[in-house]
Amino acid sequence: MSAEQANSTAVKQKKKVDGPFIRSVKDFYKRLSKNKSALVGGYLIIFLIIVAFVGPYITTQDPNNIDYAVKFEGPSAEHWLGTDHHGRDIFTRIIHGLGITMGIGIISTIIGGIAGVIIGLVSGYYGGKIDAVIMRLIDVLLAFPGILLALALISILGASLQNVMIAISIFAIPTFARIVRGSTLSVKNLEYIDAMKALGASDVRIICKHILPNILSPIIVQASLFIASAVLSASGLSFLGLGVQPPSPELGALLSDGRDFMWDAGHIALYPGLAIMLIVLAFNIFGDGLRDALDPKFNK
Fold first, then answer.
1. Which residues pair with 89 in a beta bridge?
2. Are 118 and 299 in contact (CB under 8 A)?
3. Rounded to the nearest 10 degrees, how much is the dihedral formed by the CA atoms of 141, 142, 146, 150?
């Protein structure tokens, strides 16, 4: 057997061992790796998630422990990022706050995304009066800037962690619904959809098995980008006192704690602000890379 035949046989055997899922993951990673900033964003997201899960279990201090004897201390060996106006360790509070802030962003996006996808699929697939009614309701929601809509909902529901997620989920719905509707309209008139209808396939089967899998790319990209917006909105609401309430170490609340001491102890607001910036930056550049990797128009 020649060297070429041996290599060809080895490649075929490797493909059989890997399986279609492993190969698709490898292909996706290869496309994603063309965008170095997207890889940096992806690795940063993984790092932040690991810190959010593991960090609270390895920190040695209580995030809510008050010690006025060390208040306003700058960074030191004992307090890596200093202490706040109550003497609480800022590093510990940021570690605990990462999970809260990222959790709000991810869970809100999932809830709003699922609702928006269902609404967009129904609107785009059935069209007619159903589409007209749904889209007019979506237009009403889109008429309000996201943060103002969230503020209005929080004013009605009250300030709490659950209500923040509900408010952000609701203003996520219109964006996802619009994207999914447009993608559904472009797919539902293709020949293979007509063939499935001719074979007697139900609407639910066509939507779930043949339309949804073919429009997942824009949904995934929008989800990754919206998480960044959700994190900013959650932090903004907490900063205004309408989100997660003290003494919870949510990053927006930590930023709010430091605004009255920015000139005398700027580190109280600086480090939570940097943490929010890192989360938003990571999801934004990762989302851009996902678009390039998943959208054939951007692949060269």
1. 83
2. no
3. -10
